[in-house]
Structure formats: structure tokens, C-alpha cells
């Protein structure tokens, strides 16, 4: 969720414009902290679900704080808006990549969600900049173009709710990969016993997997690390909103595509295209 920011302007003192450092604005500093927290969560993601979930959640919640800081300190900038959007897209994509590996039979679904999220936001941002002008915010949507997008972007509470519960659903799935045998069946399939007299009854993991970072070893390390009750509740509560968020992404992609196509038609009309075909003379 990108914050609603416009171009920052420098203050004047004694008739001399002070040169401000946009990169050190308070909301942008908060944005950098979000990146640090997100990177830390990715480090703990494979084997430490509680630590990862805490760091990832704090990073997401700070998205609301930097928007508040931008308005409170009058430090809204285009750089900050893009920083927020890029951070949001990258962190969500990284989590979905992990889910695709944790639930391989559903990997095509997670790959589709990543593609839809990136494509819809890029198309919407590009259409806004090319068709609406360089100074127009991507959150400024005309109601005649899309009533759904107008309601989604114009109300900060609605925007925060959709984005927060969307992330909550994916976090719940992440936690379920450490707890639920329903969603994450074992990669270790039972095989005929080859144990000989004197062999250990339970071979060490190193005897089963040559690499401790193999898919099977990683799954065995995640098995039964936590109870699945709370993650199932969180997933059930947040699923409808997550589904709604994906529908909004689809609407955003379609509307942006049509807007760009309208611009292409107008540009071709100004260029006199398509040119009329030459009339062939009769013999």
C-alpha cells in the first residue's frame, strides 16, 4: 500500500531557498526501516516462523505510519510513494515465493498472484503517469473510470484494511506450513525398510539428505513446530478480503489497459492512422 504523496517543496528563509535532502525525510527513513525489517524477516523465514512473522508484520504496519508522518510533517514526495509501492510489491512477492516452495502443488496459484500483483500495479502506475500527467497521484482515480478503484484508493481506512488482511492471509498460510499436515503433507514418503540387524531404528537426517538445505530436510525441520489453530482462524477471517483484493488487482489491470488503449487510439488519430488505402485504377 503506497502512501498518498505529492511533490515536496523547499522552505525559504530570508529569501534564500534551502536545499532539502529528500532521502532523509522522516517518512522515507521509516520506509528504509521497513526494508531492514523485511530483509530480517526473510533471513528467519525458512525455520523461525514466530520471529519472521513478527518482523514481517511490523514492517507492514509501518506502512501506515510513514503515510501519517508524510502528512504530519508535510514531507510527501514522489520518491516516497514509489519507495512504498516497491517495498510492498517486493515483500509480498518474497513471501509468496516461499509459499510456492512450501506448498509445491499450489505453486502455480502463488506464481499467478505474484504476476497479477506486479502487473496490475505497474500498469496502473504507468497509465496514471502517461495519461493523467506526471503530477497526478496513482490514488487519484476518477469515479467515471472505475467506481471500485475510486472507493478503494480514496478511503485510507478501506485501503489499509484490504492491504493488512491480504498480508495477514499470506502470513497465516506461512504459519500453517509449520503446523498443518493438511496443507503441507510430508515429502518423506514411506518406503520399504532396508534396515539390517544392528542398524539404527531412526536414521539421522544426514543419512536421509545429503544437503541440510534440501526440500525434504527443510520440511522435516518445519514439521510440527507450532499449533495450527490460530493460523487457521486467521486464514479463515482474512480469506474473503484477500480474495477481494485480488479482484481489485484484476479490475485495476483491466482499467489501466483500457486507459492506455484509449491513449493509443487518440495518438493514432492525431497521426492520421490508419492511412487510407490507395485506390487502384481500373484497367
Automatic annotation (TrEMBL):
| Topology class, membrane | Multi-pass membrane protein
Report TM segments: 22-45, 158-178, 229-248
> Where is it mainly found?
membrane
A single Gene Ontology MF term assigned here is: CDP-diacylglycerol-inositol 3-phosphatidyltransferase activity
Query: Quick check: keyword Transmembrane helix in the entry?
Result: yes
Give the keywords, sorted: Lipid metabolism, Membrane, Phospholipid metabolism, Transferase, Transmembrane, Transmembrane helix
Alphabetical GO biological process terms: phosphatidylinositol biosynthetic process
Subcellular location as annotated: Membrane
Please state which protein family the record places this protein in. Belongs to the CDP-alcohol phosphatidyltransferase class-I family.
Q: One matching Pfam family, short form?
A: CDP-OH_P_transf
Q: Which InterPro entries match?
A: CDP-OH_P_trans (IPR000462), CDP-OH_PTrfase_TM_dom (IPR043130), CDP_ALCOHOL_P_TRANSF_CS (IPR048254)
> What is one term from the GO cellular component aspect held by the record?
Golgi apparatus
| The protein's name in its UniProt record | CDP-diacylglycerol--inositol 3-phosphatidyltransferase
Top-level lineage group: Eukaryota
Amino acid at each position: 500500500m503506497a502512501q498518498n504523496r505529492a511533490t515536496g517543496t523547499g522552505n525559504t528563509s530570508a529569501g534564500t531557498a534551502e536545499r532539502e535532502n529528500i532521502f532523509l525525510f522522516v517518512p522515507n527513513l521509516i520506509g528504509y526501516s521497513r526494508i531492514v525489517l523485511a530483509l530480517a524477516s526473510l533471513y528467519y523465514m525458512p525455520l523461525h516462523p514466530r520471529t519472521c512473522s513478527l518482523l514481517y508484520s511490523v514492517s507492514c504496519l509501518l506502512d501506515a505510519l510513514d503515510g501519517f508522518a508524510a502528512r504530519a510533517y508535510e514531507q510527501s514526495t514522489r520518491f516516497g510513494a514509489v519507495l512504498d509501492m516497491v517495498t510492498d510489491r517486493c515483500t509480498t512477492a518474497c513471501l509468496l515465493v516461499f509459499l510456492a516452495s512450501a506448498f509445491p502443488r499450489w505453486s502455480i496459484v502463488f506464481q499467478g498472484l505474484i504476476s497479477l500483483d506486479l502487473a496490475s500495479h505497474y500498469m496502473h502506475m504507468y497509465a496514471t503517469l502517461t495519461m493523467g500527467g506526471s503530477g497526478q497521484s496513482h490514488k487519484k482515480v476518477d469515479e467515471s473510470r472505475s467506481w471500485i478503484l475510486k472507493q478503494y484508493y480514496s478511503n485510507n481506512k478501506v485501503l489499509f484494511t484490504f492491504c493488512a488482511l491480504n498480508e495477514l492471509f499470506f502470513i497465516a498460510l506461512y504459519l500453517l506450513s509449520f503446523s498443518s499436515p493438511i496443507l503441507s503433507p510430508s515429502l518423506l514418503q514411506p518406503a520399504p525398510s532396508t534396515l539390517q540387524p544392528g542398524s539404527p531404528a531412526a536414521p539421522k537426517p544426514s543419512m536421509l539428505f545429503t544437503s541440510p538445505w534440501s526440500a525434504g530436510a527443510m520440511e522435516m525441520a518445519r514439521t510440527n513446530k507450532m499449533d495450527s489453530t490460530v493460523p487457521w482462524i486467521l486464514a479463515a477471517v482474512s480469506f474473503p478480503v484477500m480474495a477481494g483484493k485480488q479482484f481489485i488487482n484484476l479490475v485495476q489491470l483491466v482499467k489501466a489497459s483500457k486507459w492506455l488503449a484509449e491513449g493509443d487510439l487518440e495518438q493514432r488519430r492525431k497521426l492520421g492512422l490508419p492511412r487510407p488505402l490507395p485506390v487502384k485504377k481500373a484497367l
